[in-house]
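Example 3.2
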Amino acid sequence: MLGEYRIEGRGAAEIAAGVERAVGTGELQPGQHLPPMRELAACLGVNPNTVAAAYRTLRERGVIETAGRRGSRVRPRPATTGREQLRVEVPPGGRDLAGGNPDPRLLPRLAPALAAAAEAGDREPVLYGADPVDPDLIRIARAELDADGVAAGPLTVASGSLDAVERVLAAHLKPGDAVAVEDPGWGSTLDLIPALGLRPVPVPVDDDGPCPDDLRRALDSGARAVIVTDRAQNPTGACVTASRAAALRAVLREHPQTLLIEDDHGHGIVDLPLHPLAGVTRHWAFVRSAAKAYGPDLRLAVLAGDPVTVDRVRGRQRLGPGWVSLLLQRAVAHLWTAGAVDRTAVARSYRTRRDALVTALAARGVAAHGRSGLNVWVPVPDETGAVARLLQSGWAVAPGARFRLASPPGIRITVSTLAPEDITPLADAVATAVRPSPDRVYG
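Structure, written as tokens:
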């Protein structure tokens, strides 16, 4: 069952640490089954309750999962190993369309903004006990949120979207709680939830966002929270429309105790309007990141929410990192006020590349999705084969397994670095990879 690896330890913490370490080193592989608790207890000469406590710890840390009589196994994407195990290595001379990064040529120069922020810090150094949020950043962010129709509420700052999502989930939920998530959805979120000891409940997504009936079923079944990407959904490019937002709000009104988390990481790179859901439920959070429009290394996101949620996030943050660097906050505020990014031009550039690829694929009989953002999602019958065949053609794309729970196979193509002359050869390669010639042998 475990191959060459032998579980050891006398206490629950020691047993759990050994298993987690083996998963991290690759001695235990994703999907590998662990011994039944009584069997392992007899082998180690310990009480079965000790093994049960070790397995419970591993479940709460997102390392293993338990499926009733089928026993316990290492999660397909355990938190210890991370989804990067599913990445595709780009061969020499190949094109990387798997990374999900923005086009570096569309990012602003950071030096002027950082210099301005540093000068402000030199004039008045930030010391312990200072206000943890920059008032200019909050003022600018609140004005933009108001213009977009986001519900009124206090603001704070987190170290990127995922940090904000994690802090909000931890502020309200306990291990074992269920969270409704988009499927396919952001791989990091799908890994984060079990790592927090929470249980993901997949909600199918179409081009207009999460499907309302499926969200209702998830909430009816006991999901205590839901995470929705308003625009530039990763990996499908879905964007919540006005009619879909109305339908989702209606579902949420039926479950007012649901914790609603909205992710607007596409702010600044999308030219479709925002239709926020926030304000329908008692507890909510709206997260707006600077990463895609201004640069991934700006680990900063503004978080708006109801007073209780924001207060809990701030309180827990004070006990950890304390605050997000005021240097970064001031730099982002400078970028926003200086108009360092022509958002209309950036959004148009990404839209042109997406539309060109989706249109070219349609002309070849290949369905694809990508209403907004940096990516195009292509459903495929054989995910592994499609990725491998494209890699042989010199195109590295992301396997859909990084983004799926129960949804059908697919591949994600990041369009941010595509040039017009790339569209035809890429579309030809995708069409061939999706529908290979029956007499061609691969591998």
